[in-house]
């Protein structure tokens, strides 16, 4: 088995402020994550994530879903932009769309998402409100592979935070977000090192390889 050439080429999809994108860029800049963000794509023209990309010297591309002529055509365009950037791993970071079959087929087993709850609890929207209304004592965040459901894919990594009696949606979201910024780069690092293995719907994490050459390539090949 051959080692994968590092750094991992990542492409980030975002719709908004991009604080997770920033955490990933910062981790790369600090030399703690052997990856390169090759392109940032947003479905919102003024998403601050695009500005963060530009500031970091990363190509920033707005793909207008309304101009694309349907969701398959939109995803085809997004997939082309990612492919042009040589992207091996797609990182959803505050991307407010459900991945459809076109994108899933273009990057099988190679799309990660972060969600601000301990999945499978509280998928979907208004996540902190759901946790507070349910009376959960703990919440957190989950990095998972994306499948054709909503926040249903195999779980890679999670972090837990307490839910305090005085919490509002905003205070809980802020506490969780701090953990997101730790956990997402960690999960991407595991992927980059070729240490994630799918067994059924469980993700097993292999021990670190002794040397770069020992890292096994376990990711499904990209379609031609
Ligand atoms: C995060 O809470 C993430 O879990 C969710 O959307 C939010 C994105 O925040 N999917 P940011 O754009 O990364 O700041």
Would you give an account of this structure?
By secondary structure, this protein is an alpha/beta fold. It has a single domain (8-218), classed as Formyl transferase, N-terminal domain (Rossmann fold, 3-Layer(aba) Sandwich). Helices cover 33% and strands 23% of the residues. It is built from seven helices and nine strands, in the order βαβαβααβαβαββαββ. The chain has a seven-stranded mixed sheet with strand order 3-2-1-4-5-6-7, with helices on both faces. A two-stranded antiparallel ribbon has the order 8-9. Helix 1 (19-29) crosses helix 7. The radius of gyration is 17 Å and the shape is globular. The two termini are 21 Å apart. Mean pLDDT is 93; it is low at 212-218. Bound molecules: 5-O-phosphono-beta-D-ribofuranosylamine (GRF). 5-O-phosphono-beta-D-ribofuranosylamine (GRF) is lined by residues 14, 16-20, 93-94, 114-116, 141, 177, 180.
The percent range for strand residues is 15-25%
| Anisotropy-based shape | globular
The arrangement of helices and strands along the chain is: EHEHEHHEHEHEEHEE
Strand order of the largest sheet: 3-2-1-4-5-6-7
Q: Say which CATH homologous superfamily is assigned.
A: Formyl transferase, N-terminal domain
The residue fraction in helices comes out at 25-40%
Spatial gap, N to C terminus: 21 Å
Mean pLDDT: 93
Unique bound compounds = 5-O-phosphono-beta-D-ribofuranosylamine
Q: Write down the oligomeric state.
A: single chain
Which regions are unreliable across 5 or more consecutive residues at pLDDT < 50? 212-218
Major beta sheet, specifics? 7 strands, mixed
Radius of gyration: 17 Å
Class computed from helices, strands and strand pairing: alpha/beta
